[in-house]
């Protein structure tokens, strides 16, 4: 395809045409996997009090070497602040998580003591101040604990809950539609005739999105009949934030998608100097919908989804940009230097990438067992073992 642009130019154009999602308030227990649009800030010192770190006895460090100590009571987590009386040689039995009583500064674990009634004898060396988690020693009130752009996972949710965030501000999820195309495709559960194949690409795209915490609200199919289908496509784009189309995007007589998209909006690019997936493109409709048009061969669809669509969605949600992981090729490999090549690989335990090329972009079954693909940039034909290259995993 004439006029193909480089992979790097695609990356630039995607960022240049990025539209950040609106921010919304979301209940904390519904925020898993979503992108924060605010900083999470400590509402008080952490810990908020001098916290006891071991079950045992709270004593005065200055009295550690004065012989037997008398136990004057018990303090458990959740009780208000207590004070040890001023009598020399006194102690309080304490539990992990309790507030350090006023007047003491050291905790002796049970296992370092011998108790006889209310008398306590130390049987191991101790140091003043041990097993006390001091107020504010982790963070002071007002400190940023989680930065905007972080993904809400278990750690972030725990921090948010501890700081009183019943709701968090996150990015609104995009309305995503996925279309397969082609008269030769039948439902997954159908028995295909000799001239037919089952619709696999929409399922692959849907799973890729789901594993990246995105939901395709609609999965559809477009026939090779633009007179009947173009209006339906246009209506869908008017009610979607992002549409992914697999197939009918090249230069064949039945590849009607590019012309239809041109009539509905602006072509950002069409044709990339890469293999597989050269005929892919991006359009922005008059309604603001972003449309990724991917070639219909399954390997091309998968490569385009993982290399471009999912990274774009993450940036659209406000997530911080992720640099691609580097891997080391374990074998020599030769490519066409005029194209960026997406090479399926298997990673060994040391993280080296073993090439597992497919026969062609329709040979998607050969991807089973691979871990992702290495990106071999245009400009070089020889990639010797030991070359460091970018890696894009199938598991996002």
User: Please, how many helices?
Assistant: 6
Structural class: alpha/beta
Annotated CATH homologous superfamily of the largest domain: MoaB/Mog-like domain
Q: Which architecture of the largest domain does the CATH hierarchy give at level 2?
A: 3-Layer(aba) Sandwich
Query: Approximately what portion of the residues adopt beta-strand conformation?
Result: 25-35%
CATH class membership of the largest domain? Alpha Beta
CATH topology of the largest domain: Molybdenum Cofactor Biosythetic Enzyme, Chain A
Number of strands: 28
Strand order of the largest sheet: 7-4-6-5-9-8
Instruction: For the record, give the distance between the C-alpha atoms at the N and C termini, rounded to a whole number.
Output: 30 Å
Largest sheet, described in full?
6 strands, mixed
**Silhouette:** elongated
Radius of gyration, in Å, reads 31 Å
Described by its quaternary structure, the protein is single chain
Low-confidence stretches: none
Helical residue percent band = 10-25%
Question: What would the average pLDDT be, to the nearest integer?
Answer: 95
Quickly count the domains: 4
């Amino acid at each position: 395809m004439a006029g193909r642009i480089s992979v790097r130019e695609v990356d630039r154009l995607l960022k240049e045409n990025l539209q950040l999602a609106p921010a919304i308030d979301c209940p904390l227990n519904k925020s898993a996997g979503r992108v924060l649009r605010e900083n999470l800030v400590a509402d008080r010192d952490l810990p908020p009090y001098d916290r006891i770190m071991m079950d045992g006895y709270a004593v005065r460090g200055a009295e550690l070497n004065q012989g037997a100590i008398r136990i004057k009571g018990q303090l458990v987590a959740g009780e208000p602040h207590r004070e040890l009386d001023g009598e020399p040689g006194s102690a309080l039995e304490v539990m992990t998580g309790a507030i350090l009583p006023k007047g003491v500064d050291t905790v002796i674990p049970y296992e370092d003591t011998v108790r006889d009634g209310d008398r306590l004898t130390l049987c191991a060396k101790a140091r003043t101040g041990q097993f006390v988690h001091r107020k504010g020693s982790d963070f002071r009130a007002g400190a940023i604990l989680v930065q905007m752009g972080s993904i809400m996972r278990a750690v972030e949710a725990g921090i948010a809950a501890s700081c009183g965030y019943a709701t968090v501000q996150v990015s609104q999820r995009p309305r995503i539609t996925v279309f397969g195309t082609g008269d030769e495709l039948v439902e997954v559960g159908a028995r295909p005739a000799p001239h037919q194949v089952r619709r696999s690409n929409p399922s692959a795209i849907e799973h890729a999105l789901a594993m990246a915490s995105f939901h395709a609200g609609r999965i559809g199919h477009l026939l090779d009949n633009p007179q009947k289908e173009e209006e339906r496509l246009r209506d869908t784009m008017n009610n979607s934030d992002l549409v992914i189309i697999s197939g009918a995007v090249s230069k064949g007589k039945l590849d009607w998608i590019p012309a239809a998209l041109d009539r509905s909006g602006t072509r950002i690019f069409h044709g990339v100097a890469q293999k597989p997936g050269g005929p892919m493109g991006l359009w922005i409709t008059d309604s603001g919908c972003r449309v990724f048009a991917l070639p219909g061969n399954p390997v091309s669809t998968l490569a385009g989804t993982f290399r471009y669509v999912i990274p774009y969605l993450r940036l659209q949600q406000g997530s911080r940009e992720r640099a691609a992981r580097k891997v080391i090729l374990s074998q020599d490999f030769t490519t066409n230097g005029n194209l960026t090549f997406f090479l399926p690989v298997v990673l060994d335990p040391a993280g080296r990438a073993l090439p597992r090329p497919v026969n062609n972009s329709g040979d998607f079954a050969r991807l089973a067992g691979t871990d992702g693909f290495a990106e071999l940039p245009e400009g070089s034909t020889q990639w010797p073992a030991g070359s460091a290259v970018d890696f894009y995993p199938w598991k996002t």
